Amino acid sequence: MNRLFLVLLLFLPFAASAQVRLSIDEKSVQVADGKRMTSERSLYLHPDGKLVSVQYKPSYIISLSNNLGEMRNYNPKTNEVMVINDKGVASGQEMVVMFASGRYVDMSLPQQGYRQSAIRNEDGMIIKTFVPGNNTVAIGKVELVLQNQLPICMLYYNTKNECIRKVYYSQYEYGRIPMPMRITEIDYPSKTDSIVRLNTYTNLLVGNDAKSEMFDWQIPADAKRSDLDLNQLMQK
After folding, report:
1. Which of 18, 45, 57, 214 is geometrically suited to a Cys-Cys bond with 40, CB 3.0 to 4.6 A?
2. Does residue 140 belong to any structural domain of this protein?
């Protein structure tokens, strides 16, 4: 892979992929406290930033989110829709959208309130350090490791400089956009416990190859609505 191609990979997504049409299937397996939980869903990203997520397991739920921070979760069995308004659930926070929009160069950390404080080169890898703008958060810093201009690892540290979360990106598929088809997440809630989550992706389709009626899916007009404020929920 030559240097010119790497530069193009770094900058082209901002111009070309911001309006990309994409579909992909995701399978997530989480292991915690000796228990295994599996979830499966399909994602449909519209060029305008709308993201439709069809979750098949553990329950059938269709979610509709946008880049403004509104998510609507629709339960077809009960014809109910729960509305969440929070920047944390914006479509741009989804890993698939980050790569489709070219934000993998900083993994949308600035949009989450982080600022880049340092950058260094080690063994051919670029390591960017981000610190939170709000000193009250539990995260002390985040390190984003890039190789060949693509993320291979993210490390989260608490304020005591202890690593509390690791995310690994691998098995990249190249096409109109680079996309990691395997993501491994390891959380350390304590020094003796860990939560491991493996996300694998298949059936990546981009542009005219992505064809499904789900791209234009809308919540039924007669669905019963309820609102949920995540900030209020966390304070209870």
Report:
1. 57
2. yes
Rounded to an integer, what distance in angstroms lies between the CA atom of residue 101 and that of residue 186? 25
- Total domain count for the chain? 1
Domain housing 85: 3-221
CATH code of the domain covering residue 47: 2.50.20.10
- Closest of 63, 114, 65 to residue 90, by C-alpha: 65
| Predicted structure pTM score | 0.83
- CB–CB of 63/52 below 8 Å? yes
For residue 59, count CB atoms less than 10 angstroms from its CB and return exposed for 0-12, middle for 13-18, buried for 19 or more.
exposed
> Which H or E run contains 7?
helix 3-16
Instruction: Tell me the per-residue pLDDT of 143-194, one tens digit each, with 9 for 90 and over.
Output: 999 999 999 999 999 999 999 999 999 999 988 889 999 999 999 988 888 9
